[in-house]
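Hello,

I think I submitted the NAP job twice by accident. Can you confirm which output corresponds to this input? Input:
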Amino acid sequence: MVSRVIPVDPFDLVIFGATGDLARRKILPGLFRRFCSGQMPDDARIIGAARTEMSDDEFRDMVRDAIREFGGGAYEDDALDGFLLHLGYEHIDAKGDDGWEALKRRLRDGLVRAFYFSVAPSLFGSLAERLRGFGLADDESRVVVEKPFGKDLESARALNRTLAEHFHETQIYRIDHYLGKETVQNLMAVRFGNMLFEPLWNAQYIDHIQITVAETVSVGGRGSYYDQSGAMRDMVQNHLMQLLCLIAMEPPARFEPDSVRDEKLKVIRALDPVDYHHIVRGQYASDDNQPGYRAHVDNPRSVTESFVALKCHISNWRWAGTPFYLRTGKMLKGRASEIAVVFKDAPHSIFGPDAGTHRNVLAIRLQPNEGMTLDVTIKEPGPGGMRLKDVALDMSFADALGPDAEDVPDAYERLIMDVIRGNQTLFMRGDEVEAAWNWTDPIIEGWTRRGEVPKPYEPGSSGPEDALMLMHRDGRRWREIKV
Ligand code: NAP
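Support: Only one job matched these inputs. Its output is below.
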């Protein structure tokens, strides 16, 4: 089987913030990989823009270094030289009026035109206004915006209003890079491409669902940003919420942007407010080897959470009575993103009480080693009666797909190509983002109102003890975070 790469239409892509961390680590290396795969047409052009003054050649040198550092995988130097020929640079201050005419002269008529705002959200308004004002963008142009999309409902609404003054919703691509991950899209394929699972995909057969996104890293160099944000805003409101939507939504009529996004929105709107007894906040402490969260963010009194675990309910016919447990945190014992669908016990055991209780679990691993595991119950081999045991049918996508798995684009690559194709299915719509904030805002406000301080947890653990209790109280337990 040979993977099919379908070249996209010729395009002009302007990256505002092209000298920044995201552009150098993700966007430009991602574009290079698409170039190597043959997906970028010969007349595609990528123009970097930022305040730093530099020539086209200096920008190409910067990108060459970035790809050497972050490109990943082997490539020919000729390929890199070929890619760099597609690049140019324009020095522009988003808040000033210089440079826009020069940028306009670089853009060609009749091609796909996209503007990537890889800058702080406070610049979105200035950029959008100038793109329209100087006549660089028209009703066909696309704009790509990065997270964080607001810090609460009010700020998200303000951002949506600002963008809507200049662009129609069909032109706005709000990135949540989780949606670009291969396995996340596989969630939809597993659910809606197989007859096997969907009839069982409801409260009648599913006991509960666990979503875990565990990181081993600390807040790193993002301390000052993170301390204003915390795990709820940084991870739950967007990434975990998107996973929850895909696992819980009704089948859309078609795999088309608004059909999919309408169904996701219904899930978010059906979420009950979370009882504060059902949320645990944590903050990693120091240990013998390293300083803790407060030292990392240089704020000895910080009450920002680096860990959240919560139980929530979706009030609709499909899910009434099935709890969803969400958990994410930094400095945990392993790096693992997983969705586990835990089915109910068989209604009656014909094997008697000694056979014990056994449950089917479908676990979808997003990282590492993307794949799926289905725990099924079988007879323990050998004589001596009918003893049962659970075994895992384990499928790693890398093994199942062979060499094809190697050319799977990473999330940014895929999403940027979707922008060029004009496909918004894997991007968040404005109302979706607002609905997600509408659900998370009261949780965060409750913490502030009650003056709640996060529970400390040991680096390298599974989070605070209270998070384990959240499950134990319900007679359930979290799946082990693998080291
Ligand atoms: P960064 O490293 O601080 O880069 C910011 C970029 O914006 C630089 O290229 C900077 O270049 C440019 N810039 C700043 N002020 C400008 C102005 N007035 N006019 C024009 N350009 C200006 O930030 P980043 O990490 O790349 O993040 C960019 C955005 O993506 C942020 O909203 C961030 O939250 C989001 N994001 C980042 C990551 C990540 O991994 N880094 C992940 C997800 C989301 P000059 O100083 O040369 O102007």
